[in-house]
Amino acid sequence: MKSGTSFIQSRLFANKPMLPEERGIPVPGMNWLSRVMAARDVLGSGEEQWAKMAGKVNAHDGTSVISMEYLGPVRAVVAERVVASFPSHSIDVVITARDLNRSIAAMWQETVQNGRTRTFAEYLAGIEARRPGHRAPDLPAPPESGRTFWRQQNLARLARTWGALAPVSLVTVPPPGAPRELLWERFCSVLGTPPGGFRSGPDGQRVGRRGVDPWVIRRLNELLNEQDLGLPGGHRPAQGAAGQAGARRPEVLRAGDRAAGRAVGRLPCLSADRRAGRGGRLVGRVVGRPDAGRRAGCRSGVRLV
Question: What are phi and psi of 32, to 5 degrees?
Fold first, then answer.
């Protein structure tokens, strides 16, 4: 989540007819919603889309791509179910990873867009309280936001779960100011196809998240809750309105940076000997040493770029 998947998926589906014809790489599924339905199926909700999608992959004698962020943080039993869906194919898992100090602000903004009212400080407190390997049993239950954040952002757990079943490639999301195409180039290097010759997606990013500060949206959520007013199912108060501007506020970035240093805990998938499970690789860069913050009780010396 919040690790370049929208950009990659937008590019893949903008080139859906071309990929199988010119590159021999089909992209199963009609659109993002069809992939969501397939993911819900394999997660156990009773839909029938996953079998259809897996059937298209199995019918192709070559590389296919299924890109769906919901599959990243699944439990081991679900990962085993996914891999077992392709008995005649070898599976390669690609995890896109964003630096935590940027993910924290983006993930908080996402909760606000989904109608939550936690302040940024409350969100940070939940993340720190729930950081992997640091929860004391005698402490009161920390906010649920921390559990959700680490379920989606604990790279060590994701890499261990999938790395036990297949090679894992960790593709890092470039930092702000990097060439716009760099993430796509990194992804294509794993896919095994040249990065040139592709049409851009609708925007390459999620559309309509500029202009309105997320603090304004959070306050709107509070007012709606106070009046016991809800929105029609499937709608979000921030759709087409919430802005990246708030997540870029200097105080938010500084707080996110501090929280990343304190909350990152252990990321064994970034160490040289365990970074990508069996047979995987790192595509991108890890800046700093994983043990740089050990004496301070954290791993704040590591950045993904």
Answer: -60, -40
